[in-house]
Amino acid sequence: MTDKSYDKHWQRSIKMGFEKEPQRRQLQKAKKQLKPNHQPKPTRRRDWLPEAADGSDDFDFEPVERIMPRGERERRRTLLATALVDMTESPSTSQEPPHYVEVSHLRGTVVEVSSGLCRVDMAGQMLMCGLRGSLSAEDTGFTNVVAVGDEVLVSADSSGWGVVEQVQPRRTILARPDVFHSHLRQIIVANADQVLIVASWRNPPLWPELIDRYLIAAERNKLAPLICINKIDLAEDLLDCQAALQSYQALGYPVIFASALTGVGIDSLREILRGRTTALAGLSGVGKSSLLSAVQPSLQLRTGIVSEASGEGRHTTTQVTMLPLTMGGFVVDTPGIREFGLSGLSPRDLIQFYPDLEAVATGCRFANCSHRHEPACAVKAAVAAGKLPLTRYDNYQKIYGSLG
Ligand SMILES: Nc1nc2c(ncn2[C@@H]2O[C@H](COP(=O)(O)OP(=O)(O)OP(=O)(O)O)[C@@H](O)[C@H]2O)c(=O)[nH]1
Ligand SMILES: [Mg+2]
Ligand SMILES: [Zn+2]
């Protein structure tokens, strides 16, 4: 679908009030065509109207409507029959039962969400969908009903539009606290396999604390973390880059040194993205979109121009979109977000995400040692002796101080 026709669809669907169920619309249409009975209602007592012989009622209308004016039951019967005929008249379904009686649900993956509508990838075909009105985020702890990456069951009619009927249980969730409701979280990506943490060596400069935050967030959400250091063309000495990332490599995290500008490391990047769903995380301006464009030029992503004065990247990617890769797999380019996933983490539990510190901490005198001011702290001793990298210890302390 071209950008223009896509926009048109979008606008039209908003005008149509897309969340309305098709059979309700159909019923309303039929209702208009049939005049209601304006006879004054005779006063009736409920017990004057016996139940049907088999104890059942013909319709699923509200119980109060069981007592109805003369002719009203007949009118409704006609109304429903008319609506049913209307719905079965489309050529594709003429031999089949009405589709709201037996809906054939198709499976798809949500690739974009906006204003109660979403774009669903149905085995390569894109389908614009509304959401079934009964779907609700209530009591889920999340603010959004569907998120990018969700696997959904969709019913489609002859209009070329679909309705999301059901959201399948999620394997993984990457979420952040909601801006307006701090006790709720907003799902950024569902069902991702891994997080590619992108940082730049310069412009903006490497920020190890943020890498640690993303690592913790990924692990808390059971996603495999990968690290990519971009813009290595701006490094005076590549050895400096490697030394800065050595502690991460020692912990077993895969690290790729890359440059979207020169093409270094792009092949390795392509290999780790192949066949998986990857969420990108990283500050604005580090080159996430540029790296993706280098991996697959046909993606044609918008990239920002680094402001010469501040050296800071401008925010260019504004919406979470899942991009299908021709080699298989999806990437989710998230807008430059500072952090996600650390809400609810208690300072006491932070050490679990620092296996290097945790291994040494068993030697501390106090079991509840915070490794800051306590005497006989094995962690501080290890840092002083050069056995633990200072940056890891610093990051731990900074994040520890920000929690709770
Ligand atoms: N020198 C150099 N510049 C790069 C490289 N990769 C990207 N840039 C530049 O960095 C700027 C920001 O790149 P983007 O790809 O827009 O960054 P982003 O991470 O997608 O940013 P947001 O969309 O705001 O999150 C652009 O001006 C790019 O040209 C690189 O490898 N080397
Ligand atoms: Mg971008
Ligand atoms: Zn200690």
List the helices and strands and how they pair.
Layout: H1 3-16, H2 22-33, H3 72-88, E1 106-114, E2 117-122, E3 125-131, E4 151-156, E5 162-167, E6 173-177, E7 185-190, E8 194-200, H4 208-220, E9 224-230, H5 238-250, E10 255-257, H6 266-273, E11 277-281, H7 288-295, E12 321-324, E13 330-333, H8 355-361, H9 378-384, H10 390-402
Parallel strand pairs: 3-5, 8-9, 8-11, 9-10, 11-13
Antiparallel strand pairs: 1-2, 1-4, 2-3, 4-5, 6-7, 12-13
Helix pairs in contact: 2-3, 4-10
Bound molecules: guanosine-5'-triphosphate, magnesium ion (MG) and zinc ion.
Concise structural overview:
The chain has helices at residues 3-16, 22-33, 72-88, 208-220, 238-250, 266-273, 288-295, 355-361, 378-384, 390-402; strands spanning 106-114, 117-122, 125-131, 151-156, 162-167, 173-177, 185-190, 194-200, 224-230, 255-257, 277-281, 321-324, 330-333. Residues 1-21, 33-37, 41-69, 78-102 and 305-317 have low confidence and may be disordered. It contains 10 helices and 13 strands.
What ranges have pLDDT less than 50 throughout 5 or more consecutive residues?
Answer: 1-21, 33-37, 41-69, 78-102, 305-317
C-alpha-based Rg, rounded: 29 Å
CATH hierarchy: architecture of the largest domain: 3-Layer(aba) Sandwich
Could you name the CATH class of the largest domain? Alpha Beta
Biggest β-sheet strands, sense, barrel: 6 strands, mixed
Spatially, the strands of the biggest sheet line up as: 10-9-8-11-13-12
Helix content: 25-40%
Q: Number of helical runs? A: 10
Distance between the termini: 48 Å
Give the overall shape: globular
Helix-and-strand structural type: alpha/beta
Count of distinct strands: 13
What is the average per-residue confidence, as pLDDT, rounded to a whole number? 77
Number of domains: 4
Q: Order of SSEs, N→C?
A: HHHEEEEEEEEHEHEHEHEEHHH
What fraction of residues sit in β-strands?
Answer: 15-25%
- At the fourth CATH level, what is the homologous superfamily of the largest domain? P-loop containing nucleotide triphosphate hydrolases
